[in-house]
Amino acid sequence: KQEVTQIPAALSVPEGENLVLNCSFTDSAIYNLQWFRQDPGKGLTSLLLIQSSQREQTSGRLNASLDKSSGRSTLYIAASQPGDSATYLCAPRRGFQKLVFGTGTRLLVSP
Amino acid sequence: SAVISQKPSRDICQRGTSLTIQCQVDSQVTMMFWYRQQPGQSLTLIATANQGSEATYESGFVIDKFPISRPNLTFSTLTVSNMSPEDSSIYLCSGADSFYDTEAFFGQGTRLTVV
Predict the structure, then answer these.
(1) Angle, vertex CA A20, rays to CA B42 and CA A35, nearest 5
(2) CB–CB contact B104 A89 (8 Å)
(3) Residue A40 has what pLDDT?
(4) Distance from the B17 Cα atom to the nearest Cα atom in chain A, whole angstroms
(5) Model confidence over B70-104: pLDDT tens digits?
(6) Distance (Å) from the C-alpha of residue B91 to the closest C-alpha of chain A?
(7) How far apart are the first and last CA of chain A?
(8) Neighbours of B115 (CB within 10 A)
(9) With CB atoms counted within 10 Å of each terminal CB, which end of chain B scores lower, N or C?
(10) How many CB pairs under 8 A join A and B?
(11) What burial class does residue A16 get, using C-beta atoms within 10 Å of its C-beta: 0-12 exposed, 13-18 middle, 19+ buried?
(12) Is the peptide bond before A8 cis (omega within 30 degrees of 0)?
């Protein structure tokens, strides 16, 4: 059974800092891994999808890496802004479109 | 990716009643999923909804409590039946095409409070 852990659970930083969010998973036989953002009480917004054959995927200030063999992914946020404040979730996928979610990292960026 | 419109966005319900949540996708998708997110927790999959067949439920979830309909490739509903305060959660629907390498996308969630 896939288990997903995200570290840190919470992070509070001043605006402008570069951040690294970590995701580890126990079953490395995955097709891909997706990073999401969730604002309080809201649904999920997909940030990045990284395939098992890729090592990195970039979108704007976001960069995700994947080391499938070691069961790790990181999300790098450059030059953080208050609008980045949210909970970030990672979800590796194994099997037919079934996502397993991590516990999330709650990020607060102060002006 | 496709866009899902989920309604209602929030509701406050009396215990013992039922609430039906609707998700409308702006394009056809093969797979739709329903998740529950209890306060302070991550997402837990309730069931997978395929068109023309009964939903497949995860361990701990049953059809009598969470009946699901999937009448076509753009629409699905989840009913939370005979509600109790323990059902207070955010409920989210998600869609994905049949190809394993495509993104999953989500509705905006329904925040349910049972009093």
Answers:
(1) 40
(2) no
(3) 87
(4) 22
(5) 999 999 999 999 999 999 999 999 988 766 667 88
(6) 9
(7) 41
(8) 9
(9) C
(10) 58
(11) exposed
(12) yes
